[in-house]
Design brief:
Structural class: alpha+beta
Distance between the termini: 53 Å
Oligomer: single chain
Radius of gyration: 20 Å
Largest sheet: 5 strands, mixed
Strand content: 15-25%
């Protein structure tokens, strides 16, 4: 079976090179997402020069489609064998068009493919992000209500302001499983902000 374990900051040194080499699209294939959302997406495991994640949920063994370079068939076979030994149904997530084509070619008739829109990534063009046409009114309203607004680079000295803002936001929103997972992910982001080389800006007034 694959040796899965809870992901930590110490895994960054081997996971990031694999993900960079794989060059797969989607937020699922970033070390930060794997680390921050481990409560939601499960443990991490290595199969040769590939990385995957595992979570058992409602009788299903859910795996991140392996990312890496080399013998993809061997990596997928290892995941399928791991799932067989655990028992239950096998499900892959993060299956892109090329991954679907691979599975259909290598395992004809074995998989059913279902789009899951709730997990789709947002994709914007540079022009859309620059002009924000659909948000113009929001921007104008914000600027009129907060004329003294400014930005600051997030540092160890001011990151507590971000924590306070997030805590205030959650006070006004009902709790559910997704919100709980999101809170844990954001807390991990703040806790490991400097250690994993993150950067960012905060908006203040």
């Amino acid at each position: 079976m694959i040796d899965f374990h809870d992901i930590t900051v110490r895994d960054q040194h081997w996971i990031e090179p694999i993900l960079h080499a794989a060059n797969k699209p989607g937020a699922d294939y970033t070390f930060t997402s794997m680390l921050f959302w481990t409560n939601y997406y499960g443990q991490v495991g290595r199969v040769g020069d590939f990385v995957t994640q595992y979570l058992h949920w409602e009788g299903r063994n859910i795996y991140l489609f392996p990312a890496g370079q080399g013998d993809l068939r061997a990596a997928v076979d290892a995941v399928l064998d791991d799932s067989l030994r655990r028992g239950g149904l096998t499900r892959f997530r993060g299956v892109t068009a090329d991954a679907q084509a691979f599975l259909e070619e290598q395992y004809p008739g074995r998989f059913r493919f279902t789009p899951y829109r709730d997990s789709f990534d947002y994709i914007y063009t540079v022009e859309e992000l620059t002009e924000l046409k659909s948000k113009r009114n929001h921007c104008h309203r914000f600027e009129s209500e907060h004329p003294d607004w400014h930005t600051e680079v997030i540092t160890a000295e001011n990151i507590e302001k971000c924590r306070e803002m997030v805590a205030l936001w959650y006070q006004n929103h009902p709790e559910n499983y997704e919100i709980q997972s999101e809170k844990k992910a954001i807390a991990k982001a703040f806790d490991h902000f400097a250690a994993i080389g993150m950067d960012g800006w905060m908006l203040l007034d």
